Target: Probable cytosol aminopeptidase
Amino acid sequence: RVLTTVATEPGADGPRAVRAFAEGYLLAAYRVQRIGAPASPTEAPAERLVVVGREGVRVQAALDEAVRGATATWLVRDLANTPSSTKDPAWVADRASELARAAGLRVEVLGPRELEAQGFGGILAVGAGSASPPRLVTVSYDPAGPAGTAGRRRQHVVVVGKGITYDTGGLSIKPREAMVPMKTDMAGAAVALATVLGAAAAEVPHRVTAVLPLAENHFGASSYRPGDVLRMWGGRTVEIANTDAEGRLVLGDALAWADATLAPDVLVDVATLTGAASLGLGKQHAALYATDPRLTAALEAAAAESGEPVWSMPLVEDYADAVRSTVADLRHVPQDAKYGGGSITAALFLREFVGTRTWAHLDIAGPARSTADKHEVTEGATGFGARLLLRWLAALR
Model:
């Protein structure tokens, strides 16, 4: 164990510098847990870092924020780095339930029977080819105290995270090389879970709910097929074109359900969704889509503060026909290659399921994984998105 002591200088930038240094220190200290070793903690090793200075309260608050952000990121990395031989939908649901109950939060888990009874056609279709059936997990944080304070109205934020615990591509099977990192295809669900836990730890004044649609995209005698038509939650029908575009199906179900039953003020989804996003923006920026320019600006500001950069992308209305079908309400992958913009058309498909809600979509396919250690980013799952959303929640008015 290495003990590091940091001395702070008085001034306006002191606490901010402490937060930045402590976050970087704790994030870079992460190590992937070896299989068979004792379970890694879900809290960053803050006891290894001592901060001394003359601005005690402000510095301590900055340090506490850094620890919460690093803890959330560690949790995402731990969950996403867990091999899929361990991490099936039931395992993630159990782990989310344990963490939520330990934090005093409400949790609900829907299994295959409940999903079928309630009409979650997208989640069920994606999970149909696997021996490990799907789950839908909801974790809710409701702050104590009055509904709002001066200048702040309590809002309900719902974060939906793509939770594909392994992705073979289904019948539209991936090449071997593309399958290797697919244990991390549930990073969006891990970010959603870490966000609600972090919000509770920070006692943010807003309600926060995480929704985790969990499935394995395998292939077998019961796999869904290109050309099938699915009936999603709420009744919309979707023509399937590519079973390797499964993320937008589980998200479509979860977003439609959240819109209709949770009454969010703001609806956010996070997903390792498209290769197009990483081709267009590389491995450091997430693609950001939003229906409200104020939400875009707030998330961009939080991204700059957290060091998890985003790039605002357009919801191009001229491409809306790309998600129309002649045999169903929607087609989840464009038939005509003339549109291009695969990340944009995926976002347009998701928009069909959010009603009139204020909504943002974060496509983290590029920055959610890293092939090497670099500064505060470690090889494997990076945990991208948790600190961004926690900063945004802390500033939300």
The chain has a mean pLDDT of 91. DSSP finds twelve helices and 18 strands in the chain. Residues 56-81 form the longest helix (26 residues). The two ends are 41 Å apart (CA to CA).
